[in-house]
Design a protein that fits this description.
The strands form two sheets. Strands 5-6-1-2-3-4-7 form a seven-stranded mixed beta sheet. A four-stranded antiparallel beta sheet has the order 8-11-10-9, with no helix packed on it. The protein is built from three helices and eleven strands; from the N terminus they run ββαββββαβββββα. 8% of the residues lie in helices and 53% in strands. The two termini are 78 Å apart. The chain is mainly β.
Length: 211
C-alpha cells in the first residue's frame, strides 16, 4: 500500500484499503470507496469508518466475500461494485409549554381566647384625723406638704369669752396602688389550605376534594 492508502478491516475480518485523499474530500458530503482485496468495491459514507490508533480504519459492517470471477469475467468483475447504504439517526430537540397544574389557596380565620395580665393604676385617699384641741387667734390656711394636703377643722366652744380652738387637722395623703386584673382577649390567626389543581380539568372537577 502507498502512503495515500490506509488499511480497512471489516467486522468479519476482511481486508481492504481506502484512499486518504478521497476520504478527506468526501468528509463533508458524498461517498468514499473502500477497495477490498478481491477487487470488490464498497461505497460508504466517510463517517462509517472508525479510525484506529495505528492509522488503520475499522468498517463495522460484515461484508460478504463474492465468488472469484473466471478469466473471461475479469473485466465484468472489475466494474462490479457493492453499495452499502448507511442510515444515521439525528436527534431533533424541541420544547413546548404544557400546563403542569395549579394551586388553589384559601384562608381560614380561627378565633381563640387568651387571658392577658396588665397593671392598672388608681388613686386612693387616706384621711388621718389628728386631734389638736388648741385655741387659735386666727384660722390656718389649707396647705400642701408633699403628697399630703392639710385641712384644718375648727369649732366654736362656749367659754366666758368666745375663742377659736383648733380641734383637729385632717391629713389627706394620695398614694398610687397597682392592681393585677385578668381580662379575656380575642386573638385571630390565619390558616392557609393549598389544593393541587388537575391539569385540563374543569373548575367543577377541581372543586371536588381529593380523597
Amino acid at each position: 500500500m502507498t502512503q495515500s492508502l490506509a488499511e480497512v478491516t471489516t467486522a468479519n475480518g476482511r481486508k481492504g484499503s481506502v484512499d486518504l485523499e478521497a476520504l478527506q474530500q468526501a468528509a463533508s458530503s458524498g461517498l468514499v470507496c473502500v477497495q477490498m482485496d478481491n477487487s470488490q468495491q464498497i461505497w460508504i459514507v466517510p463517517e462509517t469508518l472508525v479510525p484506529q490508533p495505528d492509522g488503520q480504519f475499522l468498517l463495522p459492517i460484515a461484508v460478504p466475500e463474492l465468488a472469484q470471477p473466471s478469466e473471461p469475467d475479469v473485466l465484468a468483475a472489475e466494474s462490479e461494485m457493492t453499495v452499502i447504504p448507511v442510515i444515521a439517526e439525528e436527534v431533533v430537540i424541541g420544547k413546548r409549554q404544557v400546563q403542569g397544574g395549579g394551586v388553589r389557596i384559601s384562608k381560614v380565620v380561627h378565633e381563640r381566647e387568651e387571658t392577658v395580665h396588665t397593671s392598672l393604676a388608681r388613686q386612693e385617699t387616706d384621711v388621718t384625723r389628728v386631734p389638736v384641741g388648741e385655741f387659735v387667734s386666727a384660722p390656718e390656711q389649707t396647705r400642701q406638704e408633699g403628697d399630703t394636703l392639710i385641712v384644718p377643722v375648727y369649732e366654736e366652744v362656749l367659754v366666758v369669752e368666745k375663742r377659736l380652738r383648733l380641734r383637729e387637722r385632717l391629713l389627706i395623703t394620695k398614694r398610687l396602688v397597682e392592681v393585677d386584673e385578668e381580662q379575656p382577649v380575642t386573638l385571630r390567626s390565619e390558616e392557609v389550605t393549598v389544593e393541587r389543581l388537575v391539569p385540563g380539568a374543569s373548575h367543577a372537577e377541581n372543586d371536588v376534594p381529593a380523597n
